[in-house]
Design goal:
mainly alpha, 7 helices
């Protein structure tokens, strides 16, 4: 989404642009969390479908746990995957108030992406490029979120909304109309 084009028509403040970009980053993080959970549910019900746009470490950890024939490591792998997913949820929830949690999500997802790339190199899987590109997409939004979180910290709070030229003209017109009616009452 290009926020710069919208600013010419709407007089949007720099703070509002940063807020929109930060919200977009948080929304992408939430989407990744939801689709990771959906993937884990699909594995649990033995569906042969996976969703892109999800975290790799919790997903593959869950697969290892579900497919453990001995069932010795199942609790460990399933618990680890749920803890990873919970960590992302915590980052999403608390990032609303402090951008430091967005940094934590970025670090975790960067490690997740490195794991994904290493996994595909190890397996020699050429189809992993699509999943890697989706990871890069999420990383981009998390980076944008961190950058705009820093900007929001530095920008002063807005005390009043930006007044557009049209609103100023209406106020001037209203003032002139009240002065004219006030003069006509003196006669």
């Amino acid at each position: 989404m290009n926020f710069q084009n919208n600013t010419n028509n709407q007089n949007v403040s720099p703070r509002r642009i940063s807020e929109l970009k930060y919200t977009s980053a948080r929304n992408n993080l939430l989407l990744m969390i939801i689709l990771t959970a959906v993937n884990m549910i699909l594995v649990a019900v033995s569906a042969n479908v996976t969703m892109l746009f999800s975290a790799t470490v919790p997903y593959y950890s869950f697969i290892l746990g579900i497919n453990d024939q001995s069932k010795v490591f199942t609790p460990f792998f399933v618990a680890f995957s749920l803890i990873c997913l919970a960590a992302y949820v915590i980052c999403w929830v608390f990032s609303k108030k402090h951008f430091g949690w967005m940094i934590a999500a970025l670090v975790m997802f960067s490690l997740d992406t490195l794991f994904l790339i290493g996994l595909y190199i190890l397996l020699g899987d050429a189809f992993g490029i699509i999943d890697t590109l989706i990871h890069v997409w999420v990383l981009y939004y998390l980076i944008v979120g961190v950058i705009n979180g820093v900007k929001l910290k530095k920008l002063p709070e807005e005390e009043q909304e930006i007044i557009t030229i049209e609103e100023e003209n209406n106020e001037i017109h209203d003032d002139n109309a009240s002065e004219t009616s006030g003069e006509s009452n003196k006669d």
